[in-house]
Design goal:
The chain has about 90 residues and is an alpha+beta fold. Helices cover about 30% and strands about 15% of the residues. It contains two helices and three strands. Strand 1 and strand 2 form a beta hairpin.
C-alpha cells in the first residue's frame, strides 16, 4: 500500500509511478490510498518488513526497518489496511 503518486512531491511523482508500475508488472499487489502513514510490506502473507523507512523513497534519511516472519503479525497488519478508514 502506498499513497497515489499525486500525493508525493512533484519532483518524485514520475519515479514513484514507475516503481508502482514495475511492481504491478511483476504481479505485486499495490494498493493506493491517500493520507496514509503506515510503513510496512507483506510478502507471501508471512514475511513483513516494518519500520520507519519509506519503502518507495529515494531520500537519504537515516531510517530503520525490520523483517518479521509471522503469519499472525502479517495478518493483523493486512487487516488494518483492508478495513475502511475511520
Amino acid at each position: 500500500m502506498t499513497r497515489p503518486a499525486d500525493d508525493y512531491k512533484e519532483s518524485d511523482r514520475l519515479r514513484i509511478s514507475q516503481v508502482i508500475d514495475l511492481l504491478r508488472k511483476h504481479n505485486v499487489t499495490v494498493i493506493e490510498r491517500p493520507k496514509i502513514h503506515q510503513k510496512f510490506a507483506v510478502i507471501d502473507s508471512r514475511t513483513t518488513w516494518y519500520g520507519s523507512i519509506n519503502l518507495l523513497s529515494f531520500g537519504s534519511a537515516e531510517e530503520s526497518i525490520m523483517r518479521l516472519e509471522s503469519k499472525g503479525i502479517s495478518g493483523e497488519l493486512l487487516k488494518t489496511i483492508s478495513e475502511p478508514s475511520k
